[in-house]
Amino acid sequence: MREWLRWPVLRQLLGSDPLGRGQAARSAATDREHARTEDADAVVGSVCPYCAVGCAQRVFVRDGAVTQIEGDPDSPVSRGRLCPKGSASRSLVTSPDRQRRVAYRRPHGTEWEELDLDTAVDMIADRVIRTRDETWQETDSDGTRLRRTMGIASLGGATLDNEENYLMKKLYTALGALQIENQARI
């Protein structure tokens, strides 16, 4: 085909569609385009991590990487809609600025160092146990049994769901903490 016959105006005029729509208006570049969601290996249900509304998301994954996040139209909460922050939540997992290693700064230190995850988890567990032991109150001054610690508290975030809040409540109660709260008020 001669190059000048590929011009969109001529294709529209010479094409079979009298109104000049359809294939005549398409370019080769348009034909190569496709939705990011078409190539997904899996679609995983999730919840937006921002506010306490709990909008449902559909996370499209290809080769183990998130390729797109959209609102879930089956959600009774958001009916497929996401706010600008929810729509941009893909950047939480795909941003090159995302921290992917444990960073630790020792007390009175001026530099950050990287720790492996097992070491960091062990450090957290040791500190929780030590704090509980140091602040444990078996009884008060009158001998009334307390069995509590005032050295541990929890404030759950607004994006935690009921199941996560339930498990956190069970954990902190088992530790003897009394000051357990979450932000979910909706």
Automatic annotation (TrEMBL):
Pfam families associated with the record: Molybdop_Fe4S4 (PF04879)
Family annotation (InterPro entries): Mopterin_OxRdtase_4Fe-4S_dom
Major place of residence: other
GO cellular component: cell envelope
Region described as Disordered: 70-94
Domain of life: Bacteria
Biological-process GO terms, alphabetical: anaerobic respiration
Subcellular location: Cell envelope
Domain 4Fe-4S Mo/W bis-MGD-type: 41-97
A GO MF label: oxidoreductase activity
Cofactor names: [4Fe-4S] cluster
Family, per entry: Belongs to the prokaryotic molybdopterin-containing oxidoreductase family.
Name listed for the protein in its UniProt record: Dehydrogenase
Source organism: Actinopolyspora erythraea
